[in-house]
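Q: what sequence does this backbone want?
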């Protein structure tokens, strides 16, 4: 009797365990099924949500293509502006008509230049190509969009006299201390004598200026490219004077150009304030990029070959540099003098 009861108890316990396992298994299946359903729903939502898709695109551009933060910011601004204008709730709502309407709005209502229109169209076209590769779209809505013809414009620059006058104005400005005088003169000298871009100057580090070899090392300029720019004697003197004054004030930050008041690297906002201040004082209207044009054009007028100028400017294509040869009236006058019939005929 006792043995029979014990056997029944064990059998009952086995059934209980089996039932418990079955219940647990069913719960797991239900949970997994629920999670898969939610994941599928989320994936379906993600495949349509323009903002989430844009985030993924920018993430890949940063980490796979190595695009700079400025490039990423420009792409984000342009694509979001299009999405807002078109009121996109789903990526599938991106159509050729909506792209065409956006570009037409920009040209007619916002007075976009032809170059701006081409830039915006290219950003959208590249983004939609990525959407196709990732199965978010079947066709590119930015294809076959009529665009305005690009204007050919000669770059604006300062002639030799105005460039000298600007440097004199920068040096003779009534600053509150010598450090500002030497630093600002060094900044404008780098732009006029070395042709750096705005952000290349701001990103310049102390170790990048080599006085022994008379060179400036531009680290990761436009297109993530390094390059070496030679210094002439005038630029070297201006930078040396600034460095001595900087050492006297014991400014030890790694960046080359420093805000003495803050003890940190000069910012873009600080630089633009200096430009505005000295533009007014000198009476010469200029932009930072025009100083880069000034460097290139004066080098052409001085007789420098286009290829070295292209290397110093960091251009990927020689055609980009060739525009400075066409921009210089002095250079063109010298060239026209080579015409074999220029002296007249008997």
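A:
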């Amino acid at each position: 009797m006792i043995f029979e009861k014990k056997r029944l108890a064990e059998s009952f316990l086995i059934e209980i365990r089996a039932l418990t396992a079955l219940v647990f298994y069913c719960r797991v299946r239900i949970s997994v099924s629920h999670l898969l359903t939610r994941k599928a729903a989320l994936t379906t939502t993600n495949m349509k949500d323009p903002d989430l898709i844009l985030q993924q695109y920018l993430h890949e551009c940063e980490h796979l293509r190595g695009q700079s933060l400025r490039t990423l910011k420009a792409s984000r601004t342009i694509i979001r502006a299009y999405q807002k204008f078109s009121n996109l709730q789903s990526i599938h709502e991106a159509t050729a008509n909506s792209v065409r309407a956006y570009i037409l709005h920009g040209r007619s209502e916002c007075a976009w230049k032809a170059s701006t229109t081409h830039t915006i169209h290219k950003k959208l076209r590249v983004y939609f190509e990525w959407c196709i590769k990732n199965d978010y779209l079947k066709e590119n809505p930015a294809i076959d969009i009529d665009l305005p013809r690009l204007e050919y414009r000669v770059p604006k620059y300062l002639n030799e006299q105005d460039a000298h006058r600007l440097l004199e104005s920068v040096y003779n400005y009534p600053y509150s201390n010598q450090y500002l005088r030497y630093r600002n003169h060094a900044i404008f000298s780098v732009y006029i004598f070395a042709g750096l871009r705005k952000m290349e100057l701001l990103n310049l580090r102390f170790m990048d200026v080599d006085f022994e070899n008379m060179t400036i090392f531009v680290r990761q300029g436009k297109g993530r490219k390094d390059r070496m720019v030679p210094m002439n004697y005038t630029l070297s003197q201006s930078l040396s004077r600034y460095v001595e004054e900087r050492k006297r004030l014991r400014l030890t930050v790694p960046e080359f150009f420093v805000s003495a008041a803050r003890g940190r690297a000069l910012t873009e906002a600080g630089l633009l304030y200096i430009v505005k201040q000295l533009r007014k004082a000198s009476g010469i209207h200029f932009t930072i990029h025009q100083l880069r044009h000034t460097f290139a054009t004066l080098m052409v007028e001085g007789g420098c070959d286009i290829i070295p100028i292209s290397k110093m400017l960091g251009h990927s294509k020689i055609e980009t540099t060739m525009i400075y040869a066409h921009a210089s009236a002095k250079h063109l006058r010298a060239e026209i003098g080579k015409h074999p019939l220029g002296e007249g005929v008997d």
